[in-house]
Amino acid sequence: MTSTTSTGPAAATGTARRVGRMLRPTAKALPEHGRAHNRSMVLAHLFHVGPSSRADLARSTGLTRVTVSGLVSELIGEGLVEELGIRAEGKVGKPATLVGMRTEAYQVVAVDLTDDLRLHGAVMSLDGAVVARRSVPLDGQTGEPAVELLDALCRDLLDAAQRPVIGVGIASPGVIDPAGVVVQAPNRGWYGLPLAERLTASLGVPVHVANDANTRALAEFTYGDASGKGTIVVTVGQGVGAGIVVDGALVLGRHHAAGEIGHVTVVDGTVPGQVPAPCACGRAGCLETVLSVPALRLAVAGDPQESDAHLASVGRLLGIALAPVVSALDLADVLLSGPPELLDGPLRESALATLRARTMPVIGDGLALRMGSLDEDGTLAGATVLVLSGQLGVT
């Protein structure tokens, strides 16, 4: 297995990411989950707000000071939280002791499977900074050989970690259920694959797997500037997908396939000059066949004027596909994630014009369609959020 490697501070793409809002819980906390739920609230406050006193935590979470004190003592004993000293303040009375989350004491392994040519992974800090990188060529492998390659990459990353690893997060194309089963990922040749379970048993650490577009949406929401009121993040790479956050909750859908717009048919052969191309899903004319990076690069290789016209026509097809989604959910903004030289220009402008033309003015007039705020490591940051959520209850 060949790999490219860089470690230490020079490998980090910038400093730790700014942490934004936390996701709204999608399930009611049951009595037997009470302590875990309370623990998650304390950790989430410290993660998002920063060092706080026990009284601050009690006010923020609504828990009693006795409960908070017990939880903080437990978390200090586990090494997740530490006391930081006395807060300087001019109030009368005993000064408060601050506690903070030890984000530097633990790390996460994050893997991005969206590239058809290489698997990309990194050791990440809990606040979303890259500590070390690894990547390996896929060499056209799918099915079981691709799983074995992924397993080897994860082992390499675990060996590169400089701190205890709390879990592995994997962003994969395809339909993924909440248990980390890849229901179907045609581009990887995976169907009904219990990927999280298999890798957890093999690696000896908890593994969390989710759709790559959903993880990108989590990253934009947690570390970026996505609106919690209603955002769809459209990811354009080797395939096309989308992650949707509405009212602070990730939308999954009945079959865990919400956001699979890449396989919506947009070219059906009824328009003269439009010939539907075959898609990896087995059908033809899917949005992915015209909007994926390979399809766009092939189409813009010629005359610049003709290239702009083609990008605008693809943007119109994207707008047509998105209009019912934007209208049904009354979304506030659409974020595009992918190569800006392809997306941020005639394609984006045409998509926005089409959306506004095909939605009610009350929805379309105020709609924003822009490039995502995170860099190419956004999917890795989203995979980090998967682990933070799954292991610590922090999102």
Shape: globular
Strand order of the largest sheet: 1-7-6-5-8-12
- Given helix and strand content, the structural type is alpha+beta
Order of helical and strand elements: EHEHHEEEEEHEEEEHEHEEEHHHEHHHEH
The biggest sheet, with number of strands, parallel, antiparallel or mixed sense and barrel status, is: 6 strands, mixed
Overall tally of structural domains: 3
Topology-level CATH name of the largest domain: Nucleotidyltransferase, domain 5
Overview of this structure, please?
This protein is 38% helix and 22% strand. It has 13 helices and 17 strands. Residues 2-14 have low confidence and may be disordered. The chain is of the alpha+beta class and 395 residues long. It is globular and about 75 Å long. The chain folds into three domains: 31-101, Winged helix-like DNA-binding domain superfamily/Winged helix DNA-binding domain (Arc Repressor Mutant, subunit A, Orthogonal Bundle), CATH 1.10.10.10; 105-217 and 378-392, 2-Layer Sandwich (Nucleotidyltransferase, domain 5); 227-371, Nucleotidyltransferase, domain 5 (2-Layer Sandwich), CATH 3.30.420.40. The strands form four sheets. It has a six-stranded mixed beta sheet, with helices on both faces. A five-stranded mixed beta sheet has the order 15-14-13-16-17, sandwiched between helices. It has helices at residues 34-49, 54-61, 65-78, 143-160, 195-203, 212-222, 288-291, 293-299, 304-329, 340-343, 346-358, 361-364, 378-392; strands at 4-7, 52-53, 81-86, 97-101, 107-112, 118-125, 130-137, 165-172, 175-176, 181-185, 190-194, 207-211, 231-236, 240-246, 249-250, 333-337, 368-371.
